[in-house]
Amino acid sequence: MKICIGKFAFACLLLPALAAAGDAxxxxxxxxxxxxxxxxxxxITLNPWMLRTMAAFMDENDADxxxxxxxxxxxxxxxxxxxxxxxxxxxSASDIDAVRAQLAAPGWSPLVQVHDAKKREDVDIYLxxxxxxxxxFALIASEPREFTIIxxxxxxxxxxxxxxxxxxxxxxFKMAQSHLML
Length: 182
Description:
With 182 residues, the chain is α+β, with helices and mostly antiparallel strands.
């Protein structure tokens, strides 16, 4: 009986860790008040319902829109945060570091990491892969006057990300100049 209770307790302790390992959705800070301080800000949150609605209005006869529609079918959510400021250090680096720390969780694999200490610029791109399929994408880019966070959750092919980037106009973000590096 003690062994069964011990196994049950151990399993209960592991459940949160296993759940976190499979979740590609990053927990983003509220960034309250940053839009007021920023010279430019973008806050995009697309849930499954919004993504299905977008896909429903795409023209299946247009090859580009049809490809984007197929890509959106496997995506569960898209979050984009971009803030640009007139001066240095207008945002809390600890907020960005807290998001970066989530990418150390099991399942996330670094794709690109560029850190320039002199310019205080960092770019991290990670993929979450489950059973040989991509289930998450994260880009975190920061510099003294700007930061961008992009989090895509769902099943998709890496080759399709540039089409999504183009359709959602993500190229407009200076910090996402890596063009998702794919």
